[in-house]
Design a protein that fits this description.
Strand content: under 5%
Region (Disordered): 130-153
Coiled coil: 62-115
Structural class: mainly alpha
Radius of gyration: 62 Å
Biased composition (Polar residues): 133-147
Shape: rod-shaped
Largest sheet: none
Helix content: over 70%
Keywords: Coiled coil
Low-confidence stretches: 1-5
Protein name: Coiled-coil domain containing 169
Number of helices: 3
Distance between the termini: 195 Å
Length: 160
């Protein structure tokens, strides 16, 4: 084997191998140290999570929010039930609507009855006036026909 290569059959010096071994040991120690730091940090986080100091505030807030959400959900259900009763009970609405329609029709009937009576009274008045006028006309015509023979006689007496 050659000089500076040491006793290693692969041609790598022992010093070089020792150096690599030291680097590997150092890397191993760094990894172990990182693992210890992470475990320590995890333990601290778990402790703070379980501690009454910081965790209880968030736990209290969470529980309060859950309670408030529950109350709001109950109110929503209650309001939805009320809306269903209003929507689901059209008989009251129909009843009011029909009552209003009946009132409207009663008012229209009263107005139409009054208009009919007025018109009927006017019709009777016109008929009476027409009968009177027709009677006068008949009387006048009769008078004229009664006077016709007299006028004829008078005419004949005068000109004959």
């Amino acid at each position: 084997m050659g000089e500076g290569r040491g006793d290693n059959p692969d041609g790598v010096s022992t010093e070089h191998l020792k150096l690599e071994l030291l680097e590997e040991i150092h890397m191993k120690d760094v990894v172990h140290l990182s693992i210890l730091e992470i475990k320590h940090e995890m333990a601290e986080l778990e402790a703070s999570l379980n501690s009454d100091h910081e965790g209880s505030e968030w736990k209290t807030r969470y529980e309060t929010q859950l309670e408030l959400n529950g109350q709001l959900e109950k109110q929503i259900v209650s309001l939805e039930e009320k809306m269903e009763k209003i929507r689901g009970n059209p008989s009251e609405k129909e009843k009011r609507s029909l009552e209003n329609q009946v009132k409207d029709y009663a008012l229209k009937l009263e107005q139409e009855s009054k208009a009919y009576l007025r018109t009927n009274n006017e019709r009777h008045t016109y008929i009476a006036e027409m009968s009177q006028a027709a009677g006068s006309h008949q009387a006048s015509k009769k008078q004229q026909t009664d006077q016709l023979p007299r006028m004829k006689e008078s005419y004949l007496k005068m000109y004959v």
